[in-house]
Write a structure and sequence with these properties.
Elements (H helix, E strand, L loop, with lengths): L1 H28 L18 H20 L15 H21 L7 E6 L4 E6 H25 L13
Helix pairs in contact: 1-3, 1-4, 2-3, 2-4
């Protein structure tokens, strides 16, 4: 019973993050042409687009590759040019996360063993750890994206989970 409740909590938390992400992407849709992919020196992951792709890549790696053992490569940044491309990318991420949560609905604390190629090693993490990692990682970079938007001259909206 408690295990199922944890998974419902994770699914509900992810839905809140999707709502926040929608605010971020909508904010980006208001940029002048070129600002979405404009590199911002010494901040974030290069551009706002690059940062959003990095967020998606972390989901693709930890949930797709590590946990679900998908052989699909992470999305290449240069393939993403527009906010619609970002929407499509995160739609695929959402489907992957939903499948991951469904497949692991009765084992939030069980360890998943997966490979970390850059370390040439296997590690193990729980479903709870993996979901917490990818969600908090997204929020870390969401803050950077809002700051990057401000640096480009835009007024960022409130994109927190609790918005006023």
């Amino acid at each position: 019973m408690i295990r199922i409740e944890v998974m419902k909590l994770l699914a509900n938390q992810y839905a809140l993050i999707q709502g926040s992400r929608e605010v971020v992407i909508s904010f980006c849709e208001g940029f002048k042409e070129g600002d979405f992919i404009l590199p911002i020196d010494d901040f974030g992951r290069g551009s706002i687009r690059d940062t959003l792709v990095h967020i998606a890549n972390v989901y693709e790696f930890w949930i797709g590759h590590f946990a679900m053992q998908s052989l699909r490569a992470t999305t290449e940044t240069n393939l993403i040019r527009t906010t619609q491309d970002i929407r499509n990318l995160f739609s695929a991420v959402d489907e992957m996360v939903e499948l991951f949560l469904q497949e692991n609905s009765h084992r939030p604390d069980e360890r998943i063993v997966g490979e970390i190629p850059s370390l040439h090693a296997q590690k193990e993490y729980s479903v709870l750890q993996l979901m917490t990692h990818v969600m908090t990682h997204e929020f870390h970079h969401k803050g950077q994206i809002m700051t990057m938007g401000r640096m480009l001259g835009y007024t960022p909206p409130d994109a927190d989970v609790i918005r006023f």
